[in-house]
Design brief:
The protein is α/β, with parallel strands linked by helices. Helices cover 35% and strands 19% of the residues. Helix 1 runs parallel beside helix 6 and helix 9 crosses helix 11.
Amino acid sequence: MSLSKPTVGIDPGNPWYSMLLCLRCRTVLSLLNGELACQACARTYPIDDGIPRFVPEEGYAEGFGYQWNRHRLTQLDSYSGMPISRDRVMNASGWSADELRGKTVLECGSGAGRFTEVLCETGAIVTSFDISSAVHANAASNSRFSNLRLLQASVYDLPLPEESFEYVICFGVIQHTPDVERTFKTLLRYVRPGGRFCIDVYAAPIAYLHPRHLLRPVTRRIPPAQLYGIVQKVAPKLLPLSMMFNAIPRVGPYLARLVPVANHRHLNLPNKKVMRDWSVLDTFDWLAPRYERPQTRRRLQRWAKELELSKVSIKRYRGLYVICGIK
């Protein structure tokens, strides 16, 4: 894994940034004195360690920035040696590596780059963004890919031309945004007519029936570093109990669900340390977000109808709905 200085951001020798637009007046930006500048309205945007930044701070996503910089490698296939992220992308979307090669892909909510890595390995031209400082973890992990362009930006205010991507993908994000419907419909504005999309979201009402929701009114108000310290101590102690319950025939998975700790037994992770790391990461991911808004199948169907999307499929996978289709 390369730890060299990220090269996935602004590179004068590869001026992909010429596609970036001013958030105020939508004029194409120019590189000037180490910043991106708008010649029309004089607004400037900083470049932070090679990554263009279009948000002043992390805001509601601070916890995500913290967790992904702490767990930069944990869920990368290249680190675990298992195709967990690749299988999730390909199985959920129905896309193939051959289909994606050379195509333009927009990834919403990069996190530490587990899915970014998979997309880049297909040979697609990947533009990935996150509102949090997780983009720096992604850059550190995936700087080897010359086909990756990274931004720090909000889904509600992207410096990108609409209808400019052949594929849009978003996993693990929209339920954690302030307005899930607005997020979903905003993402679809960036898909070209005839382009494809794949977006997942926590499924309601089942996702609500979990003990973490008794804890979240408190935990989401705890500063990320403090909450992480608590989870790091408690999760490894609860995980064996969850595993014991899970092993009980028939009722085991339901009993394990009563223990507020992430249990990835179904993934067949290679060893106890890896399983413990995944458990700490995802237990924190349950408890830290400011927003968590699962959605119903009927609501997703309504949004798809309002946008006049075609060939829409909505599939249930564990606690998620995965919605795919064509614009």
